[in-house]
Amino acid sequence: MVTLAPELKTRLALPLQIGSVSLQSRVLQSPLSGVTDLVFRRLVRRYAPASMMYTEMVNATGLHYVKELPQIMEIDPGERPISIQLFDCRPDFLAEAAQMAVGEGADTVDINMGCPVNKITKNGGGSSLLRQPELAAQIVRSVVDAVAVPVTVKTRIGWCDSEINAVEFARQMEAAGAKMLTLHGRTRAQGYNGPARWEWIANVKSVLSIPVIANGDIFSVEAAVNCLEQTGADGVMCARGTLGYPFLVGEIDHFFKTGEMRPAPSPVERLECARDHLQMLWEYKGKRGIRQARKHMTWYAKGFPNAADLRGKLAVIETVEDGLVLLDEAIAYLSSLPTEVDAERLAAPAFV
Ligand SMILES: Cc1cc2nc3c(=O)[nH]c(=O)nc-3n(C[C@H](O)[C@H](O)[C@H](O)COP(=O)(O)O)c2cc1C
Question: Are 247 and 279 in the same domain?
Fold first, then answer.
C-alpha cells in the first residue's frame, strides 16, 4: 500500500511555481511526439484538469521558413495550463518560434534538450545540446529575452555514461534564465532502455533553486511517490505510462491531493475512452487521424480476455466505422462477462 509521508504531503499541497505561473498540480503530462495532440490532451485533462500539458515538439526552423502554424501548435481555446515545446539549435529561430507559441496562448515555452533521435541531434537540436552547454545557455537567454512567459528546459542526465553532466548543465540553464528544469533520468545513449537513474535527479535538485521535475519510469502512483521521496523533486512528469492510459496523470494527481487511490478504470471504461479518442481523432484530423489512431487503439486494448485478437484488428482499421464497430463489440462482450471478470483491474498502464 502506498502512503504519503507527512513531510511529502505538506510539500505536495503547495502550488508549483514556474516563474510567474502558478500550478495547482505537481503532475505533468510530458510532450510526446505523435501522441500529445489536442485530442489526447483533452482526454488527459478530463481526469487531470489542473495539470500542465505539453504539445508535441515543434521545429523552430520549420516555423521560420514556413511562417504558418503547424497543427501540432494548435491549442484549445481556454486550454490551460499548457506549454508549447520547441526544438532547434538556433537561438534566433527559437526566439521567433517562442513568440509564435505565446501568440497561440502558451503559458510557458519549453525547450527540448533531450530528444535522442538522430534526425534531431545531427542538426544540433535535442540532446546534442548537452554537449554544447554554452549554446544551450545562449538559446535560453535568447528565448527569455523574446517572451514574457516563463521559459523551461527538458533534458537528460548526459550524452552517455562517460559524459554525464546533468548537474553542471542544469546550473547553466538556471543561470541563463530557465524557470523550471525537467530531467529525464537517462543518458542519450540509453534511449529509453534500462531504469531511469533517479539519483541524478536528486543530485540536480540539490543544487537548483528553480523547480526540478522528475521524469522517467513514472508508470504508477507508487512510482511517483517513490520518485519524489528519492529525489526530493518538485513534481513528476508522466510519459510512456500514459500511452493508451490517459488516466495516469489524474490518478497520481488525485493521490497527491487526497492520499487516496482513485479506482483504476475497468477494461470497459478504457475501451469507452478509446472509442472517444478514435471519434475525436476522426473529427479533428480526418483520414490521417484514423492512421494515427491505430497505434493508440492497440495501446488501449490490453489486459482483458481476447485483447490480442482485438489489437490485431484495431491495428489495421481503415475507417472510423471499422474501429467503432470493433470497440462496440468488445465493450458488449466484456459487459456480458460475469462481474468478477468485468471488474478485473489492469495491473499497470500500457506502454511501448
Ligand atoms: C513516443 C514518444 C514520443 C516522445 N516525444 C517527445 C517530445 O516530443 N518531446 C520531449 O521532450 N520528449 C519526448 N519523449 C520523451 C518523453 O517525454 C519522456 O522524457 C521519456 O519517455 C521518459 O519518460 P518515461 O520513462 O516515463 O517514458 C517522447 C517519448 C516517446 C516514447
Answer: no
Ranges of the chain with pLDDT below 70 = 339-352
> pLDDT at position 349, please?
47
C-alpha of residue 328 to centroid of ligand 1, in Å: 31
> What pLDDT was estimated at residue 233?
98
pLDDT of residue 135: 98
Which of 27, 32, 35 for mutating ligand 1's site (highest number of atoms within 8 Å of CB)?
A: 32
Residue 345 pLDDT = 47
The yes-or-no answer on residue 115 being catalytic is yes
Helices 267-285 and 320-336 cross at an angle (nearest 10°) of 170
**Same structural domain for residues 198 and 119?**
yes
Q: What is the pLDDT of residue 317?
A: 98
* Pair 42, 157 in one domain: yes
Give domain status of residue 350, yes or no: no
Ligand 1 in contact with 296 (CB < 6 A)?
A: no
Q: What is the predicted pLDDT for the residue at 1? A: 87
Task: Establish if 352 belongs to a structural domain.
Answer: no
Residue where one domain finishes, among candidates 225, 258, 291: 258
How far, in Å, from the CA of 165 to the mean position of ligand 1? 20
**pLDDT number for residue 68:** 81
Q: What is the pLDDT of residue 338?
A: 83
Q: What is the CATH number for 234?
A: 3.20.20.70
Query: Domain range holding 332?
Result: 267-342
Q: How far is the CA of 335 from the centre of ligand 1 (A)?
A: 34
